[in-house]
Amino acid sequence: MGWWNKLGLKAKFISGITVIVLVTVASLCVSAWTFRSLREKTDRLNQDMELNQLVQTLEIQHLQWVNTLSRYLVDPDAKALSLATDPTQCGLGKWYYGTGKQEAVVRIPGLAADIAALEEPHKALHATAVTIREMKEKGDDSGARALFQASTIPALQSVQKHLSAARSIVAEDVGVQRSAFDKQTRDADLVLLGLGLASILALVLLALILFYSILKPCQEIIRYSKKCRDGSPEPLDLKRGDELGQLAQNLTDLTQHLHKELAFSKGVLEGITVPCAVFCPDDKTLFTNKQMLALLERDEAPHECLGLTSGELTCGRKDEETLSTKALKEKSLVHSKIEYTTHKGNGRHVMVTSAPLYDTQENLLGTIAVWVDVTEVVEKQNALEEKSRQIAEMAAQAQEVANAVSAASAALERQVASSSQGALDQRDRMTETASAMTQMNATVIEVARSAGDAANLAEEASDTAQNGAKAVRQVVESISQVETYAGQLKTGMHSLGQHADGIGDIISIINDIADQTNLLALNAAIEAARAGEAGRGFAVVADEVRKLAEKTMQATQEVSKAVTGIQHGTHGNIQMVEQAAMAVDVANDLAAKAGESLASIVHLVQDTAGQIHSIAAASEEQSATSEQINRALEEVSRISDTTSSAMSEASASVASVAGQAQTLRGIIERLQ
């Protein structure tokens, strides 16, 4: 059998298949010949049975035909005969004069005599129907009946006789054909059984040959592969020249190559310096390094941890589900940062990455887990977050300060606007007062001139006294108007003084807010310096906040100076207004006295000269008083202009403070 072992598997399978094909072809040929013979016998048997059925049907049809003819005879009301009178058009005639008769005679030669003898009585039978119809139509019913009995019945009996004889011959042939079919069927069964046994014997023999030549070496290869799997391979010595021998040699070479690759992979795993572990598809430890055990704070050696589940290795609990378990279930990469308590109770922050491992066929081999200790990084990050939180709190406080500065600036701006409007109103009132005093001064001069004329023209004292009384009434009205304006101006100046004092209070609040902002900026700079490199941006923002606080203090100082000037000017205005009010009171008293004098002149014309001198003296004194009032009003107007200018400057300074507060708020928002 050495030549057989050297023969390739392809040749062996071709040889086996050739044997099977030859046996199968022989079986098919014999089966085909057998089935063909059976099919021919079956067709002949079916044809004979159909012919037997046809003959029986023809007998029945002619019996029915004669029965219909007899009913036609006995029915006195029958008008027409509904029968086939042509012997070639009935069922028997079509079969007889068609191809059916010839085929039947050829297939069964014994039918020829009876079939030939059937033609004449069949024609005579149909001819009697024609004669009976003619006689019936002529009214010869008795003759028709006699003809029916004498000719129709005998012809029918003759037809039935020959058909029955033919049917017997056909039935006999059917029996012969059925016996032949049964015998041939039994012979076919024996032939097929013999072929089946021969095929089975050939297949069994071929299977035995293939088993000893193919399966036995395969079993040797399987045993070798199991020993390789268990890690204790033995030499595989199959001295064969076929594909199995080549497979054995290739498997031996592959095993040696895999041992080298496994040694290399083991060296790579042992050379990894980061903590890692490899788990099989059952989540049991296949490999772990010393760094992993050091991170877990386990005292065992790496080989002592093999076979532990990932939960036992990391947490000390067998059924604990870990990220490696999750990676196995989901068959995907799992990455997470966890807080881990070591086997000695120490806390660690660990970045864990678990990834599934696949072979080249995408079969799951297990998972590899890499643990990175990030405890120091997390602690530094927490410290930095705490610093950021403190800076955010200071920024929030600075935000509140900025909001307070903004609100105070808005309130101050409203106060300054109100004070500026009061100064403008004061200037308008002073302008009106100056105009009234100018009119009053002109009136006083007119009174003095009238008094002089009265002294020189005593004779016109009555007319002049009337004019003087009229002028004095105008003076009294002007002085009353001046007194009203002076009272309004006094009230406005007092209100302006209160607003100026309120501005001073707001400036004090802004100074306090600026000092607090500067202090917060200094604290933020100190905290940013403590934070180091991460707080450099906060230090820059804190410095900008400090500069804004200094600008705010400078602006508030300028506003404070302007407000102080406004307060001094306002107090001076109040004093001047009070003096003007006193002068107006004096002028009012003098005007009243002048009125009384003029009234006396009207009633006492004889005392005109003396009274006119008194009027002249009073007019001169009133003129001097009016000039003093005019100077006081001019001074008040100048102070009002100064106050209005100071209010404009204060409004600009307050707007600048509000702008600085908005800038500070924007910086704090960016800081947050």
TrEMBL record:
Biological processes annotated in GO: chemotaxis; signal transduction
Domain HAMP intervals: 212-263
Assigned keywords, A-Z: Coiled coil, Membrane, Transducer, Transmembrane, Transmembrane helix
GO molecular function: transmembrane signaling receptor activity
Highest rank taxon of the organism: Bacteria
Domain Methyl-accepting transducer intervals: 401-637
Keyword presence, Amino-acid biosynthesis: no
InterPro entries recorded: Chemoreceptor_zinc-bind_dom (IPR025991), Chemotax_Me-accpt_rcpt (IPR004090), HAMP_dom (IPR003660), MCPsignal_dom (IPR004089), PAS (IPR000014), PAS-assoc_C (IPR000700), PAS-like_dom_sf (IPR035965)
GO cellular component: membrane
Segments passing through the bilayer: 13-35, 190-215
Coiled-coil regions, chain positions: 377-404
Keyword Transmembrane: yes
Family: Belongs to the methyl-accepting chemotaxis (MCP) protein family.
Protein name (record): Methyl-accepting chemotaxis sensory transducer with Pas/Pac sensor
Species, as recorded: uncultured delta proteobacterium
